[in-house]
Amino acid sequence: MTALFQNFKRYESLVNVVHLSCCWSTLGRLAAASEQDWFNDNASAAGLAALAAKTAAMLTENPTSGDIRARELANIAHGAAKSGRAAALGDFWTVLANAVEPRLGECNAQELANTCWAFAKAGVAHEGVFNAAARVLCTGASLDSFPPQELCNVAWAFSSVGRVDDKRLFAALCRAAGRSVESFTTQGLTTTLSSFAKAGVTDLPLLRALATQVHRKLAQCNAHDLAAAVWACAKLGVGDAALFGAAAAAAERHSDRFTPAGLANVVWGLAKSGHCASTVSCQSDCSNRLTPLTIAVDSQLFARAFEQPIHRHLAAFNAQDLSSCAWSMAKATHVSPPLCEALSRAARDCLETFNTQDVMNFAWAFVKLGVADAELLTSCAAALASQRLDELSAPQIANVAWTFATAGQMDTALFSSLARAAQTAAVDFTADDLASVSWAFANANQLDERLFKALASRAATLIDEFDEEVLDNVEWAFHKAGHRALVKQLRQRRKGRAGTEPGGQQLALPGASKCGRIVIAGGGIGGAAAAVALQHRGFDVQVLETDSSFDARKQGYGLTVQCADALQALGIDLAQDDAPSTSHYTFSADGHILAFFGEAFGGGKVRDTGANDTGSGRFVHLPRQALRHRLLEKIAPNTVRWGTKLRSFEPTGNGGVSLTLTDGNTMEAALLVGCDGIFSTVRRQLALAGDALNYVGLVVVLGISDAVFPLCERRIFETVDGTTRIYVMPFTTTSTMWQLSFPATEEVARNLTKDVAVLKKDILRRCGDWHEPIPSLLRSTPLECMSGYPVYDRPVLEPETLRPLSRSDARVTLLGDAAHPMTPFKAQGANQALRDAVLLADTLAECVAQHGPQAGLVAALPVFERKMLRRSSRTVIASRDKAKQLHTRLALQPGRKGQRDAADLNVSEAIQTLQARGISASSATDPRGLDAVVAKCISGGVDEPAPEAQLEPCWGWAVRDDAEEAAWHKGTVLRIRKSGKMVVQWQDGSTAILAEDFVQPRAKKRKH
Ligand SMILES: Cc1cc2nc3c(=O)[nH]c(=O)nc-3n(C[C@H](O)[C@H](O)[C@H](O)COP(=O)(O)OP(=O)(O)OC[C@H]3O[C@@H](n4cnc5c(N)ncnc54)[C@H](O)[C@@H]3O)c2cc1C
């Protein structure tokens, strides 16, 4: 470097542009080789200043000289940018830009790419240069001849200087990149992908191809490339569980090598993708020893790989990095008080540098983790209130309202700014926007009159688009806000659907059968419902079901059904099958109440039993087989071909589909609907891009018990310990279903679930010392009424993935679990399948009426799929999130669920009061009943001592344990029901309900 400057000084008066360009190139190369560690003396500063001054003078004196060619200018720019002192060169860049701009058309690919790269690297977003470059790059097939490195440099340059709106340029870049996907270097690949992410490129096939290459090259990625790749794939929503799983493992290896921004990006990307779980290793085995599973899905990875590096980089984090780390921590459900405290302190020091998004994410994360301190949130509320909120989207507005309401921070200025922002945006709200914003404000008890008026007038125009869930939330919110007229309209909307018969179902479409036969693969909930809905509309339907008969397989679990609109459209009345619950509790493992809600406390959901809907929105619980039976009995005889399994399908020449069955037979269909569940044959054959089973890191064990326990009567309860969770609900009016879940690796889950006896031992050790009746409930469940399985879902499907252009007119579609399998933790799978079935029939009927039988079928499918996937993808994601949360310490936070109609009730305070008064799961044996005790306590009338339980010693006549015949057993009468039946507790703590004649006072035993 010294020699370079000395020579330059000696010959300065003689140099021409070619010499100068050589000097700059050499300078750039030497600087890069010394890792920019050359500029540490006065001689270097003077040498650089002299070189820059001479260059500027030459370019200014004779800017149009023929000697000044594009090549030399590109070299000068490139060398200057690589010098590492670009910012010190000041006006030099303006002079250079003026000289470069008119000559860009003369550049070859490398010169053009280098020039763009250099200006971007120097942080000089010269409009003229970038406009001219974009023009040249988009002319003809200019970019097609660019090698991958040059494509990468151009993409990086334009995205770095914020020229992400150059849609034409990015489209041309995508086309060119698509031709050389496999030739990118690792760095070129990750840089190009992250540039595309910044530009919001939507070319999914290309992005997926790039993500696949990233996966292949992951082992060669350094920390920088890895961070760029993970961030980009998560931002673009490409990459599958396998990619993110491998990336999480690589991130753990590199965790000490990330820059602060790189660390924040990689943590954000892994949390956003939600796939870190696949790398979690639980030490466990399926022997008889207790499996020491202490992990909480993503949280363990976060603790292992990221917590210490985040602590180390805290001082260097900018606002966005801090916010990303906090947000990721919450998404990974990682509750670490020291890290929260450190992040909170760091944020407080620079809150004024946070933009709106950063503050929102930061505050949300702390509230979500239940660790927000009031001082931090007050500062966040003030910071938000001082910013422009009118650019927030509806979900963002709802999120902010939820965050601050949940934390009890009702900052007047903030809520008023939010209300004004929502009021202005309301005219453009979608049905979902309207539901989330009105719910969030009502939930926060912020019933701003002007806002609700604006929301009400928007609601009136959207009313026909509301599905059941939206109706439920909107009705509740406007009821609370006192908009009686709208509530009445909403209730009417709930009751009647245009074109329905008095029974509820849709009218038949004349000529529907001309479409040809619709074959449904799978006779589960979705398939049976689709058959009902399609036959109502007059379509010719055949269902193929693998099982040899309705009862061929044990299908023992219960469902909670919440979609009254779909039931109504199907004409199904579940009143006689409903096993109702009137209260819902969450307990800790020692029985403390963590949350409660329900009808028993004078509000909450009112139950709804189906076609005779009273507009009440109450849920129904029933065995899956009972619902399936109700559906199948509505189908015309011989519609279902039992014992018939679809093997494969292919399109026929006439637009239909030819089906091959596993018995070798074939059949023709005008349309094939895959309702064949999570392991769908139809979906597998569609070979959808990026499709794979996603193991969510959990085992679920199911059981059904006939034993009677007071806590299980007409009640749902769940008990959590931060890792394991049990959910207990009525199966029928005389039996109870439980669902126990805990984290495990896929291998452990598979091994453990092979043998229910081993599984039972494992769960009894896990929950054996939990509050009663959990141990007794588990013990009382016969092995043949138990089953276990690893929990899977699949990536959320995009409509374009399900129906790519190459298959745009395919007469094949999916619904139910085949289209959108989800974890069972939000109890939504069957509800979604029922709604899909009605939607399919409605859309087909509408399109066939409009376009005729054949064109109508083809036109209907993309419309149906778009609507179905838009609705169901929310629940897939929410179910996955809930799966995660329920198995972490987050589940232990008191009051996470509350009585939503009880505006005056402070749930946290109520829970503290209940704990202080010793009211817990064991209060279920109180003669007044648990709900009455809780209701009395929260209404303030608590001090009255509980009446002495009339624990009458008795003999009860019953079949118990493994005995085959009834006998007299010792017990105590806990309670006498209104019917006269007695609740008897046996000496092992379990209970039974016996008729009066079967109970005798202990003293007067007599022969029965
Ligand atoms: C423990 C548990 C609790 C749940 N709780 C709830 C709840 O409370 N609320 C709720 O809404 N959802 C719940 N779900 C989810 C719900 O059960 C499913 O989402 C729903 O059953 C999906 O219906 P489906 O028809 O799409 O698939 P499935 O019910 O799986 O039916 C698929 C059918 O296709 C058949 N089949 C498969 N392959 C072929 C083939 N090649 N040819 C012919 N037939 C084939 C199968 O035999 C099966 O009968 C729960 C799930 C579980 C596991």
Explain what this protein looks like in three dimensions:
A hairpin with an 8-residue loop joins strand 18 (952-958) and strand 19. A seven-stranded mixed β-sheet has the order 5-4-13-14-15-12-16. A five-stranded parallel β-sheet has the order 7-2-1-11-17. It contains 37 helices and 22 strands. 47% of the residues lie in helices and 13% in strands. The structure holds flavin-adenine dinucleotide. Flavin-adenine dinucleotide is lined by residues 521-527, 544-547, 557, 559-560, 624, 645-646, 675-677, 681, 700, 702, 739, 816-818, 824, 827-831, 833. Flavin-adenine dinucleotide (FAD) binds next to helix 26, strand 2, strand 3, strand 12 and helix 34.
User: In angstroms, what is the radius of gyration?
Assistant: 33 Å
Report the end-to-end length measured between terminal Cα atoms: 109 Å
Calculate the mean pLDDT score and round it.
87
Structural class: alpha+beta
Please estimate the helix content.
40-55%
Bound molecule types: flavin-adenine dinucleotide
The tally of strands reads 22
The spatial strand order of the largest sheet comes to 5-4-13-14-15-12-16
Q: What percentage of the residues does DSSP assign to strands (E)? A: 5-15%
Quaternary arrangement of the chains shown?
Answer: single chain
Principal-axis shape = globular
Instruction: Profile the largest sheet.
Output: 7 strands, mixed
* Low-pLDDT windows of residues: 276-297, 604-617
Number of continuous helical runs: 37
